Amino acid sequence: MSMLVKPAAAPKRLLIVSAIVAALALSIGGIPRLAAHGTVARQTDALAVPTVAVVTPARASAQQMLVLPGNVEAFQEANIYARTSGYLHRWYSDIGTRVKRGDLLADIDAPELDAELAQARSDAATASANYDIARVTAARWQEMLKDDAVSRQSSEENVSTMKAKQAMLAAAQANVGRLAQLQSFEKVTAPFDGVITVRNVDTGALIDAGNGGTPAALFRLAETDRLRVFVDVPQDQAADVVAGAEANLALPQYPGRSFTGTVARTSGAIDAGSRTLRVEVDMDNPDGAVLPGAYAQVSLPLSAAKPGLSLPANALLFRPAGVQVAVVDAKGAVQLRTVTLGRDFGARVEIRSGLQGNERVIVNPGDAVSPGQIVRIHADPANA
Q: Helices marked H in 48-110 — which ranges?
């Protein structure tokens, strides 16, 4: 006897297979989508708490090198004037000539002065003769007064005459000395060792010693074996300049070469116009490589008595309330601290006040950082 299959069994199996296929398709497409949604949610939660890098303030260096422009000047420099009027007979030193103290620079012809000196000497000789006669006469009258041969009044008159002649002789001798001194100025000599930087006269030129107006300088002499370099230090660093410290000079015409000097002295007062302290650096220049009037970059060592803390420059926030830094507390919350800046070291800046030294300061804080914001500290040891 044969068995018969019910007609409804086949469609039922087909429905079951279709449901299984649909379930498998749903699971294959839905599970990754659900996983992606979970990842996005986790990333969103993670980004809600920003990650920051922090540094701890370090002790600032007590020494700092301050580089400022400087003006190079001769150690001493003077215009050489004539003290005697006349005509330039001859000059002996041109510009660039090195001379020693007392070297002859020029001769001046002054015939009128020579004649005045000769006359003064004759007047002095006459005064000397008159004094000798008056002295002998006064002595004779004093001897006769002892024997009552002459009156006391007559003797005293002769003594007074002698004293007057003596005073006239002294005046004549003083005039001779004055004119002789002026005659010695006919020879113009160097007052110190140096180099002639300016010559304003030629042979035959009329020399005016100032009797008819403002005199003109014959030469200009500069001592270049030693130099003075003047630097204007800003008021903030003025207290850190130490006399006797070694300074280095760099000139554009000598790339890679450094010259050494010593901080000799300061002006001791802040200039009211520029708010700077004038500092003088003395340096030896035996080979004459550095010329007066040159421009130099001067590196001055500054020594701070009480150095503060230091932070990277990119940790600073410039806000209307002042310069601030963002500090992460023990709970991971941001605090803003107002700080006072000190010396500028370039990549780092000195902090004078506002920090204790154990804070965790955020590096490169965003402009949107705010007090109380929760942050996560980067785990990189280089930024810890």
A: none
Q: What Å distances lie between residue 358 and 53, 56, 189, 370, CA to CA?
A: 15, 6, 70, 21
Instruction: Kindly list the distances between the CA atom of residue 365 and the CA atoms of 18, 24, 72, 349, in Å, as whole numbers in the listed order.
Output: 59, 50, 45, 16
- DSSP string for residues in 309-358: EEEEGGG-EEETTEEEEEEE-TTSBEEEEE-EEEEE-SSEEEEEES--S-
Residue 370: burial class (beta carbons within 10 Å; 0-12, 13-18, 19+): exposed
Q: What is the DSSP string of 11-41?
A: HHHHHHHHHHHHHHHHHHHHHHHHHHHHHHH
Binned average pLDDT, 10 residues per bin, the chain of 384 residues = 50 67 60 60 62 87 85 95 91 94 94 92 93 87 78 83 92 93 92 94 86 77 95 89 91 93 94 94 93 94 81 89 89 89 84 88 86 80 43
Closest CA to 113 of 80, 89, 82, 85: 85
Can you list the alpha helix ranges (DSSP code H) found in the chain? 9-47, 111-146, 152-184, 235-238
Amino acid at position 27, single letter: S
- Dihedral of alpha carbons 347, 353, 359, 363, sign: negative
Identify the bridge partners of residue 326 per DSSP, sorted by sequence position.
Answer: 336
Give Cβ neighbours of residue 87 (< 8 Å, ≥ 6 apart): 108, 109, 110, 204, 205, 206, 207
Residue 183 half-sphere exposure toward CB, CA atoms < 13 A: 15
If we measure between CA atoms, which residue out of 64, 59, 62 comes closest to residue 351? 59
